[in-house]
């Protein structure tokens, strides 16, 4: 029997939503993220059910998805799980990317309205807890985006408003038009772009900061080795473009030292990397996306072995 973990919860921005600091990322259900060339791949429904069951049993009751993950298959799979299990997880979903090759994209109000209703239908729910724009749309005024999201909230279709993949200038401009409750960006020991401006901006403006790709596409798990071929089926064989800069002696030097420190603490590299993020008071939540139930173990490790501030600072200097 799985021993449940205790996960701290925090208020999402200025909303009435309270969300745990760990969410289950469902981007691999029926695809590999939003990439049309991988729609229909990733985890099938039985495999996705096994991951959701394991996450729920562990104590993770917040599921993160997007309308374009698997071309809608991720939301459909979650909806099927909700009906089959009779459970009600906290739900985050997003819109921007096309749901089919050559399909439309963006944040035009009429498109967002259509996409929200299609998400509600696939998920089989009447309300989404956190609804996010999945990227910045330079062709749609921030005023129109915020007004559309606030309309959804006033209609009772969503409870909190968020954005994803926004830089400081984009978030600042959006906040000038109205408040958003949350942002979800890539951040990890290897991806630190948000530290200088965006994290302090979020802290000042009461915008909850959620991390996706906390293990940098698997680079912080130890699966990639200096001079060794990339493992078959890994991100570096499927979608390497976003991680090509990591192939350097500097990064491998840091990874080798991270592995030594993890061994000294009797924790996996992945668990230690998650601990580093959770030790940052400005990080409100992490989205973890396991391909198998056993890959949830680093979450348990990270919660069991938190880092002191000085330990976090020392780890941060590795890269």
Word description of this protein:
The protein is globular, with a radius of gyration of 19 Å. It is an alpha/beta fold and 319 residues long. The protein has helices at 45-58, 73-85, 109-123, 142-154, 168-175, 198-205, 235-238, 249-265, 269-278, 297-304, 309-316; strands spanning 9-11, 18-20, 22-25, 62-64, 90-95, 128-133, 158-164, 182-186, 208-212, 285-288. The chain starts with 8 loop residues before the first strand and ends with a helix. Strand 1 (9-11) and strand 2 form a beta hairpin. It contains 11 helices and 10 strands. The chain has a single domain (9-222, 281-296), classed as TIM Barrel (Alpha-Beta Barrel), CATH 3.20.20.100.
